[in-house]
Amino acid sequence: MELKPGDQAPEFSLPDEEGKTVSTKDLKGKRYVVYFYPKDDTPGCTTEACQFTDNFPQFEMLGVPVLGVSRDDAAAHQAFRKKYGLRVRLLSDADRKAHDAYGAWGDRPGRGEGVIRSTFLIGSDGRVEKAWYSVKPDGHALEVLSALRA
User: Which residues have C-beta within 8 Å of that of residue 117, sequence separation ≥ 6?
Assistant: First the structure.
């Protein structure tokens, strides 16, 4: 099931790379970006995370947190952030509940079941402003910035 603009964003409460819980309740009243990616330190995921980091000052100026979500644990997230100097917060969704709720897990044509690389711009009202599925990592951070400014 894919989310569409106007849908209520599913709630989540997930640990970040330092074990601190990040919850949709804490983000209430703010716009934020949450993106789902397959695995830390793999080529596409690295491209995507590095480009969000390269553009991080612009997201900060707009007051929009960027949260990356994968099934990796805190140790993997810490190593990934350190290796590439990443500034986005990385959340662990080991039980896949957030992936399922956002439609970021399912059948991938020709590749079987797994993570569907996807990104969501959530409005301050907690509703989806924009949803991207089957994202191509290169250039995606700029696409998200462009949507934020629209």
Answer: 35, 36, 37, 38, 44, 48, 104, 133, 134, 135, 137
The answer as to whether 15 is a domain residue is: no
What is the set of active-site residues? Answer: 45
C-beta separation of 111 from 105 below 8 A: no
pLDDT at 110: 84
Q: What's the CATH number where 55 sits?
A: 3.40.30.10
d(CA 118, CA 73): 19
Half-sphere exposure of 17 (CA within 13 A, CB side): 17
Sign of CA dihedral 115, 42, 89, 33: negative
Tens of pLDDT along 36-46? Answer: 999 999 999 99
**Inside any domain, residue 137:** no
Q: In this structure, is residue 82 part of a structural domain?
A: yes
Q: Domain of 58?
A: 33-130
112 exposure class (CB count in 10 Å sphere: 0-12, 13-18, 19+): exposed
